[in-house]
Structure to design on (156 residues):
């Protein structure tokens, strides 16, 4: 096991392990002031933990975007966002990668196919709702929650 603390014992108040345990709380702003300051001091003096922190920030941002995307019911908006992001990336890399231009129709096709696929999936989910069919008498005595949870597993 590598000990980072022994390398710079004087500047580092909090050790790496303790610092990393506090990182999610630090990111979420839920640490008590004193602990937050200790984490900050450690991050300034320790590149390894700073990298960990950056990684955490990045993954938190990705998760946030995923959540926003799930809440957006308009698939076309997501398709356009994807194409816009691609356009932007293309502009940034144009000087390096000019043949990339030929790929654009393929990419739009891909996004549309993905949107259609997702649409079909949602359509199928509605189609197979048990309530749409006549319910047999013995089924009526079953727990509704049980039916829902088993039908969810069947779709997999
Ligand atoms: Zn550290």
């Amino acid at each position: 096991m590598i000990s980072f603390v022994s390398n710079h014992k004087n500047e580092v108040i909090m050790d790496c392990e303790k610092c990393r345990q506090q990182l999610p709380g630090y990111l979420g702003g839920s640490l008590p002031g004193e602990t937050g300051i200790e984490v900050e001091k450690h991050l300034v003096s320790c590149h390894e933990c700073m990298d960990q922190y950056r990684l955490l920030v990045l993954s938190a941002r990705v998760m946030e975007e995923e959540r926003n995307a799930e809440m957006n019911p308009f698939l076309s908006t997501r398709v356009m966002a994807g194409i816009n992001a691609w356009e932007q990336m293309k502009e940034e890399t144009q000087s390096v990668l000019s043949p990339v231009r030929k790929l654009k129709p393929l990419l739009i096709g891909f996004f549309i196919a993905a949107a259609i696929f997702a649409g079909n999936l949602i359509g199928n989910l509605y189609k197979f709702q048990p309530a749409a069919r006549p319910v047999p008498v013995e089924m009526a005595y079953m727990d509704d929650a049980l039916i829902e949870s088993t039908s969810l597993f069947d779709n997999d």
Observations:
- The two ends are 43 Å apart (CA to CA).
- Residues 4, 16, 19, 42, 46, 48-49 surround zinc ion (CB under 6 Å).
- The helical segments are 16-28, 33-45, 47-71, 75-93, 104-127, 137-140, 144-154.
- Residues 47-71 form the longest helix (25 residues).
